[in-house]
Predict the 3D structure of the following.
Amino acid sequence: MPLKQRTFHVLLSLDDGPLHGYAVRKRVLEQSEGAFELEPGGLYRTLARLEGDGLIEPVEAPADDPSPDARRQYYALTHRGRSALADEARRLSRLVGRPDVAALATSR
Amino acid sequence: MSDRPPRPREPRRPASRIYARLLGLLPAATRARFADGMAAMFDDALRDLTGAARVRFIVRAFAEILAMSVTERLRRVAEAVVTVVRAGPPAGSLAADLRSDLGLAARALARSPGRSLVIVATLTLGIGLNSAILSFVNGLLLRPLPYAEPSRLVQLSETAADFETIDLSLPDFALWRAEARIFDGMFAFDDTGFLVGGVDGAERIEGAVASPGFLDVLGVQPFAGRGFTSAEERPGGPEVAIVSRRLWEALWGEVDFGSEATIVLNGRTRQIVGVAPAGFHFPEVADIWVPLAFDPSTADAFDYGYDAIGRLTEGATLDDARSEGARVASLLAAAYPGKKTGIGTAVYPLRFADVPGGLAAASLLALLSVMLLLLVACTNVAMLLLARGEERRAEMATRRALGASRGRLLRLVLTECLLLAALGSAGALVVAANAGPVFEALLPDERPFWLHFGADAVVLLWTLAAGLVSAVGIGAAPALQATRRGPGTTFASERRSIGSAGRGLVVAQVTAAAFLFALSATTVRALAEMMGGDPGLDPTDVVVLDVVLPPWEYTSPEDRAEAGRRVLEQVGAVASVQAVSIVEAVPFVGSGAEVSIEAADRPGGASAVAVLDPVAGGYFPMLDIPIVEGRSPTEAEERAAAAVAVVSRALARRLWPDGSAVGRRVRHSDPGARSPTIEANRPWLTVVGVAEDVRGDGLGRPPRGRVYTPWSRSAGVGFSLLIEADRAVQPLVTDVRAAIASTDPGAGFREPATLEAGMNHSIWIERLATGLIGAFSALALLLALLGVHGSVAHSTQRRARELSVRVALGASVGSLRSTVTIEALRVVAAGVAVGLTAATVGTRLAAPFLPWAGSADPLTIGVSGLILVAAAGVAAYLPARAATRADPSEVLRGSARGAARAGR
């Protein structure tokens, strides 16, 4: 099943390791070149849904946190999450590789 | 209390504190899941972001929470509905289950008859007032006019700079009819009265003159006979008339319409050629119509006294008509070079010719108010149902134990709510059906003949819709309560004055009540200013009587002036009459002819527009209008129809700001001609005095400049008598009529009225609007206060044990009561703040439609807020006081016994 863009970006941001709420927002903002500005409520709802679908799981905060805040919840990709992410990445690159789509991307 | 994770050690920023507060708006379940993470994310963002990005984030996060506070609750309601749907089709047939549901619901309501009755009564009131006001709006604005394809009918008038909208002159109308390509047909008309001759004196009957074809243009078929033909439009053509159905029956009874019926009007015999259908009294109260006969080449092109209605061709729009109007205006300017250059034309839908914009706006405002009242009523009912739901927890638990699913229980609760709403709607229909006569009594008699209020299909549908919305409104909270797993947070939570579920309802109620209160306060203040303002004259004990002398007996102006003088003498001699005068335009009632004014020592054309007010007799002393400079005309000047005048103070200041007006000369244009140019042959008048300004156009409008001239200069056969007498109206008028009839048996009279009534009537729309909104806001406030009282009472009852323990342990009773009250007031304050803000914004937005009300000023808002919070404080304090008055040991013993009985 294709993933929603927001969901894809959230999962992608976790690819390099577990992150907490604000860090996900920052990473997604940078990845999407400013297209997705996530708000707290919406983001946490998305994270809860992904957790319910088994794509991510809550994990302990890393020990080397400079300003610890026990309210933060860190999430990491599960096995299923990682493979869903890879599937979507493959689907998207096939899409972008199509001649008609590539032509649109380079046209004025 | 759950274990809270350790907070970060650095001090919290103000934005973070606000955000944490806002998180409290979310429902408890959502909060428990997400609040910590969201708060942490917010703090992290504040640490990391700077400048514009930071502000952006804060604004978006706050907005998100406000939106979520609503969407999360809706989400839970939706989940509850999904539960019902997933519960699947019932075991037995749908009909049998519905019947059993209804039976169960009815029995459940019957078990608490008092509460059920209160709920049904509240809903009847709320829905019923909605239906009643909707029938008002429906009759006024929605129901189609009783003509064929009424949306194609428009009213025409002309405009001139500085003058208010003027009507058409007959030659102008003829030009329109000949040139305008946008109409399938048009006609001119004017309402007027007729003296119908009889053996014992004349009777005045209301009627109208109308061009032939007026019935065709309107699309109305006569009940009998025919309409007018174009031959009857020529002056000197056949003298005919059409009568209304009720006039025919009054004069000829059951006789069938034949071709020989005649009637004597204004001394001339006319043949009756047709009878209008029942209920038709175009334009307002006409019972008789005669053809508007004129010759376009000789009729006065500057007598702007006629209205005109046209039927647009198929597919033509109002804008097309307006462009056509501009074209005709340029044709008019060309036909009368230099004289009609400032004249424009105006076209508007027929309905708004008859229904003043202010009344339409007021009726819509009343509708908004009554919808808010329904909101408050529904939240009150919801709170009652929630309280009852708690008491039924044992019953619900038993049902669950016996196998009922959550969906089944939900259906039960919803059926009860539907039943209550249905009963309320039925009661509401009764209210709406009886509201019609009330509205008709509230409106003045001079109203369009088609205006009726009753319960028709639109009102029925609205009542059904309101019933459904109410069912959902009252059922949402109890439905959530019924489907909750386990007790959870209840209506009356253990620690707060108003439990979490009740809190949302109280905030909603208080917001609506505060909005209405501020709105009402604004209109009351505006009305008080209007009524308290000095009208400039004293209407006490003054009766107004319109007189029409037979025109065929007084054909010259001198005869008419002499007749008027005689009438003044005769009436002055009647017992108990203190003073009498003649006017043409009764203050507050008549509008008075507008004229252009030119001052002699200011050459170069007209300097102002003013109202021409011919008066005779002791007009100024009778009404206590002070003459601030000079004097009023003497009796000799009146007898001689001298060229003198009195001007109003504002006009004097405008024309001669530097010196006194007395002794200066002015002249005015012909009262019929709304023209900025004054003919060279108009006579000059010498100003002999300056009178104080008078709000002659009504209390709601600023005074206009006035020029008072001796009535004898322009005497007509129709005039108004102002009679000052300390006596009851009817016997006085009988004597006055007898006195006049002794020399003029053919004189006609209209219904007398008092000047005071006229003054109050001039702001009838404002008074009606203020009264309606005030009544609804008072009801809403009462219901909201009952809601606050009930919530606090309910929760203090549950906390009785806790409170008693605290008292027993030495807590001061006074401080406990204040704590409870203040907790409740925090909830109320939130609602009041939102409601008052909404009222400030709302009145500002509505100001162009309701100019008289103005927008809510800070003083009104502040005072409203204080009153609301004080009232709510009392409503919250009373149950707190009652709960802490009981002897603590009694309470504890009682509750222990109760606990033992319940086997807990």
